[in-house]
Structures are given as C-alpha cells and as structure tokens.
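Input:
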Amino acid sequence: MWASSAGNNRNDHAHVTRVVILLAIATVLGLVIQAVLRPDGYGDGGEYQRAVLEDIISREPLHQGRETCGECHAGILQTHQKDIHFDVQCEDCHGPGAEHVRAHREGPPAEDDPARLMPKEYTLEGCLFCHRRLNSRPADFPQIDPVAHYEFLKVTDPKTRCIECHDPHEPVFLLTRVAEARTHPVIYECVTCHEKRPQKSHHEAPDHPVIFACADCHQEIVGDFAGRRHNFMDCTACHFFHRENEVAGRIFKNGNRRFCLLCHERKSFKDTEQVPAIDSKIHLDEFAELLDLDPVELEADPRACLKCHLKEVHARKLLGR
Amino acid sequence: MGDNTDLNRRRFIQLALAGATGAFVGTLTAFGAPGEKPELRSMQDLSKLEWGFLVDTTRCIGCGSCVRACSAENDVPDSFYRTWVERYEIDKDHEVHVDSPQGAIESFKTDQCEKQRLAKGFFVPKLCNHCRASACTQVCPVGASFHSPDGVVLIDRSRCVGCGYCVQACPYGCRYIDHDIGTADKCTLCYHRLHRDLTTACATACPRQARICGDLRAPDSPLRRVLDQRRYGLLKPEMGTDPKCYYLGLDLEVK
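Output:
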C-alpha cells in the first residue's frame, strides 16, 4: 500500500504543475496586455494624471475679488471697506466680474458690449437673501420682516427696493460722519453680559436688572422730546449706538437733511397721508425766498431742516453743545 | 589687440541680442493676458500639500452666496449643486425638519416652523468632503475618479463613462451626473483657483467668513489655526471615509 502510494506520487504532482504553469502564463499575459493597453504615465502622480490636472486648472476663475475691483473703483471700495458690509464681496451683489474686467483691460469696450457695465442695482430680493427675518438665522444678525418694515415706514409699494433708502456700500453710517460721533461714557451692549445677543429687548424681560436709560442722564431732553411730534420714536432711531466691535461707546447723531428726507422726501412708493412729505428742492427754494436766504447755500447746508423744524425734534439748547 | 577688440565686439553683440530677447520674452510674460494659465506645480510639490475645508455653522446665515458663487464659477447645470445650504429646524417635540429649497441658491423664503414651536434652528452648508478614504473613488470601474497628490478628489472627464456608481456610493450626496456631457461631476475645491493662489469661490463669496479652505499641513494656515483652537466635528464619521471637511458647531441631528 505504501509502495503504490509512493509510485503514484509523480502523477499526483502533475495536475498541480499544470495549474501553476497555466497561472504563470495567465499572469504574464495579463501583464503584457496591461502594458499594451495602459496609457503612458498612468498611475498616482504619473504623467497621465498630470495631464488631467493640467486640464482642470486651465479653467479661468470668474470671481476676481475686491482687490481687482478696487483697481478702477478705488473710491467705492474705500467707502465700502469702512462700513459694516466690508466683508461682503463686490461680486456677491454685482455678479462675477471676469468678463467685465477682461472687456476693460482690452481697452474701452464698445457701447453695446454687455460686459461694459456690471449689474448695478440689486433687487429687493437680493438684499433679503441675507436680511430676511428667519427664525433659524442667528439672532445677532440684522434681519427684517419686509412687510412689517414697510408698514412701519408707511411704504405703500411692496416692491420698493432697499436701495431707495439704504446705500449698500455704507448701509449703517451713511448719513453721519464719523467725526460727528461723540464717545459716550456709558453704553452697554447686550453682549457685554449675554453670550449671545438676546432676541428681546431688555424692556420686554420683566425681571431684567435696571440698566441705564437715556433719561437717566438726559432727563431734560427726553422730557422735552416727549411733548414733540416725533415722540413715538426711540432715541436710538436718530442717535445710533456705536459699532459692534468698538471698545469705546460712540453715539452717532443724525440731524442732517438727508436723514430727515429718508422719511419725508416725496416718493412714489410712500404713503404721504400718514407721513408729511415734501419735494426737497421746491421746499427749500420756497423757504429761501421767504426767509431771504441764498438758495444755493441753503441747499448745501446739511442742517437746513433744523433751521425751521427744530421744534419737531427737541430743544437744541438742551443738547449740551 | 585687434583680435581682442573683435572678440569683444562679437561678445557684445551676443550679449545685446540675448538681453533684448530676454527683455522681449519677459515683457510678454509680465503683460500677458491676465487670466493666463498657471504652471502646474510638480507632483512632489503637490504631495507636500493637503487641502482641507472648514465650515463654521454658527456663523452661517443661510444667504446662499456660496451656492450662487459656486454655480457661476464652475458653470454648474441648473438643479444640481456642488455646494448647498441645509436648514435644520428642531421643534419643541424634538422633531427635526430639514430643507434646502433649490440648494438655497436663492436663500430661504419662509420659515418651516413657527417661532413659538421652534427650539433651535441653524444652517449647515455642505460640499464634497474630499475624504482621504473616499467611497466614490473606490467604486469607479474605470479609474476616472482619483485623489490628486494634494488631497482633492477629482474626476477625469475623458475617462468617466457616467455609470453613476460614484453618485450612489458617496454617503454625502455630493456627486451628480452632468447630463450635458454625460459624466459624473462634483466639487473640485476650485482646483483652478487654488493653483492661482486664490481661495475657493464659495469661501471668497461668504459674507460671514463661515468657510475657510486651506492647507492642513501648514502650521500657520488660517484653517490649521482654527482647527487647533476650536472644537470641530465631521459628517458621518462612522462611514469610515475619513473626510477632510471640518464643521464647527455641528449638531447631533445633522446627517
């Protein structure tokens, strides 16, 4: 039995050898086929992948960045960089600028070249992308409910664009020069105590600790103001608080003509029955004649309204100036 | 003496010609077309980089500027998005409402959940995670999806057959089939911009600085600095894809 088993050993190996040979042939054949079919330089980091990467990077960037815009529009960029929209890229509102930049770098573009001008004005919807009131938006981000906002402002046309009143390049402090702002000894920000800006004002929280109100120090002005026609407004409607990231408190005063006209200029979209409205040019000319003033000088005076309408606001002599 | 002068003259002419040619070529380079194609860095240089991305969900206001910028920059076909913003609204019964109307390309128009019912709400921008162990590149039958040496997951359009395996494999839903050209397509991390030392279109466009793209290996890159200081999370870490898109302020409900 042992002998016969040993005698058959050579035959037992035969099928294994055959399989090994077949596998070897298949491997070699496979390698040859791969070598023939595989493109040159294929593989991680090889020339083949390089060609694909070359192709991908050949795409032209469309968004140019604000530095490029500033090469020609330095003035606007400078204004824009000083106000709260400084982090909003030009191209967020105006659209990608590649075509516009190319057209102007090649020389003055033709009148009918669509790339000559960028889309200039943003629709109402455009501003609302960021500023529409949504429950999920961070509460410390400025946002409005357009319906309530227009109701408050007595705006009749719901399609009125934000840029009728707000300058997108300097939306907050447009109407007051920083030089006019005065540092203020006591200004509390909500975030001084709260980690996040609360959604409610402290007046609405019944057990809120007492914090300074304007009347605590400016009793005379606040008392005087209570008897005037604008008394439905908060002091901060005209006297802006400081910017969020400023350490020292600043009060920005707004008594200038353009500020008054935000509400009182006659506009097609405004309800003139509830808010007295004027055509500022005609109005000023009339008064220049009446008071025997130089109309050009009056036109240039930022405080022209206050010449007559100081009584609508509050007594000037109490301002401590 | 005469020979010497001759030689000097010849040498002078040679030098002058070389100089003039150099100046001419130099001028061409300096004042060439502004959008000229940059030179691709060598593979060794590329492999020293590792691009990563960071999204700060606590800063996002859901305005959709990133989506609009991405779609314009990369010519993304309508109804597909390489980046999109999801809104998570969790009501007082702990029910989660998620929506992203048209990828939030026009932001959000209405609230899903009334203010009284809402416990918390936030926005989560999404994009390709450029995973180190990506599922999408593994399943590609023709090797058209690949990792670039600097860690960006890209598609070779000339090889892609548009079978859609990768679209199904990606656990984050970041790929789509571009029916105009019949291949899969996805976020390239604005690879064409990175090579011009620009950041991605979405990070540029974000008005709240909620997105940062940067090199994970550079110790002083803005991305690395934030990652070293803040606590971050990853999307679906249990999938084992080892994503490179980090999220600040990520909620457990975000999938």
